[in-house]
Design goal:
With 461 residues, the chain is of the alpha+beta class. 25% of the residues lie in helices and 28% in strands.
């Protein structure tokens, strides 16, 4: 299923008097989560101004959303879970209605296709009490909070057009009690103390998908510097035991060197700052938040985890998926880059990782039953998406050869950088760059729920 294309660039326009303005769709068109995102709007930026009470786990604030109407609108939606007290459109009070995950805003006058607008939403609530699509994604205790999750996180803390296809710029300011720290994406713009607490303002220079925006509030040890010409900021929760804090800082300190190594294969790092955060909360996953991935406490030796999340800065962040069914493009590429990094730093070659995984799962194993290119919403983070996605890329490398494979990777990142891509687009580019008919190859690896035959056509002989 194709997604509706969002308009880039806008112009002033007026709605005619024929009564053609309609309500924007409640979803952007993704078949896995029909209510994700919204029709009729193309968001340019979010200006988030929140305060967060760590002990009470309560959040309140205002978010300014600047967008272009992509059709004549009588009303439009944002994805949001907290209680909204008011909203304005271009400074004029608007009607608001909430139904679970959907916030419907009706401006006083219709919005014309191509016109630009500013909506400001005021809200308050306890994110930890909210759920959507069977998910309760707020991660917090009375010492710390971190807004990290996938595929959904934004609606728990700011109103959003919550789908990767609508990237935007972010300016996030969060006020916490004095003595507490806040970490977010991008660069720290300011830190101001007031009677209400300390406000930490972070700004991301490059557009990003809404689920990649994050903030963490609590007590953190923060380190910063510049390496290989790239600024970095790392933070580790002080809720962790001293030994775990030390090992986490050691692990995060590898970030600039890993970015440099990945850049040799993938091209220039796509963002203006890097770093990472280790939370003290009991989470069991890491997440590729743009410019600053978040990690659980895993010790100082888990370098492959750092490689995986930093590879996502290219695959998943800079080039985002256009549909959640294409998740293998993100996770498969990050897994493959783990293997590639290992073969360049004293580990086994990626070809061995491919065959070890291939031989380790006999025909008939559940591992082969998933259709990687369309796994279904319940399986987007299945182990097979990661491992078979990585295997697909290594097998493709062996099928088309080293030179054409890396030309494919660079061309994909160069042409899709800052935007979105689908599996079909990647497959078409692979055929174009290699000069080969790869239909059977991708059918075997991505669309057939059986173990690929060990043949040269499948990159296995």
């Amino acid at each position: 299923m194709s997604l509706p294309l969002l308009v880039s660039g806008a112009y002033a326009a007026a709605v005619d008097d024929s009564g053609t303005a309609t309500s924007g769709a409640t979803g952007i068109g993704d078949p896995y989560w029909p209510l994700d995102g919204n029709g009729g709007i193309d968001v340019a930026s979010y200006r988030i101004r929140n305060s967060y009470d760590i002990r009470d786990q309560a959040l309140r604030g205002t978010t300014q959303v600047r967008f272009t109407a992509t059709e004549d609108l009588s009303s439009f939606n944002l994805d949001f879970l907290l209680k909204v007290s008011k909203a304005t459109v271009d400074g004029v009070a608007a009607k608001v209605r909430q139904s679970k995950h959907e916030l419907t805003i009706t401006p006083r006058t219709d919005l014309a296709a191509g016109s630009r607008h500013k909506v400001v939403v005021t809200y308050a609530g306890h994110p930890g009490t909210k759920h959507y699509a069977g998910e309760e994604n707020w991660l917090a205790n009375d010492h710390e909070a971190v807004a990290m999750n996938q595929p959904h996180m934004a609606p728990w803390w700011f109103p959003a057009n919550d789908h990767p296809i609508d990237k935007a710029r972010f300016d996030v300011a969060t006020t916490v009690a004095q003595g507490r720290e806040v970490i977010s994406n991008g660069k720290l713009v300011s830190k101001k103390r007031t009677r209400k607490g300390t406000t930490w303002r972070w700004r991301a220079d490059e557009p990003m998908a809404s689920y990649l925006a994050f903030f963490a509030a609590g007590d953190f040890t923060i380190q910063k510097g510049t390496a290989h010409g790239l600024p970095w900021v790392n933070a580790v929760s002080q809720q962790l035991p001293a030994a775990e804090q030390k090992s986490s800082l050691k692990l995060l300190s590898r970030t600039p060197d890993v970015v440099k190594a990945l850049s040799a294969d993938l091209g220039p790092y796509p963002f203006s700052v890097t770093g990472g955060l280790t939370t003290g909360l009991p989470v069991y996953f890491a997440l590729e938040n743009q410019t600053r991935p978040t990690y659980p406490a895993v010790g100082g030796q888990a370098e492959s985890l750092i490689v995986h999340e930093l590879a996502h800065q290219w695959f998943g962040d800079d080039v985002a998926i256009a549909r959640w069914r294409d998740i293998w493009l993100n996770e498969g590429a990050a897994t493959f880059m783990e293997w590639r990094f290992a073969e360049q730093h004293g580990g086994p070659p990626a070809s061995e990782a491919l065959m070890s995984t291939y031989d380790g799962h006999p025909a008939g194993d559940d591992f082969w039953e998933l259709e990687v290119s369309d796994p279904g919403a319940a399986n987007v983070f299945d182990d097979a998406i990661y491992d078979r996605g990585g295997m697909t890329l290594q097998a493709l490398r062996q099928r088309i050869g080293e030179e054409k494979f890396w030309l494919l990777v660079r061309t994909w990142l160069d042409t899709k950088g800052g935007g979105n891509g689908t599996s079909e687009e990647f497959e078409a580019l692979a055929a174009q760059v290699s000069g080969q008919d790869l239909t059977g190859f991708f059918t075997a690896w991505l669309r057939t729920p059986t173990k690929p035959a060990k043949t040269a056509d499948n990159g296995l002989a």
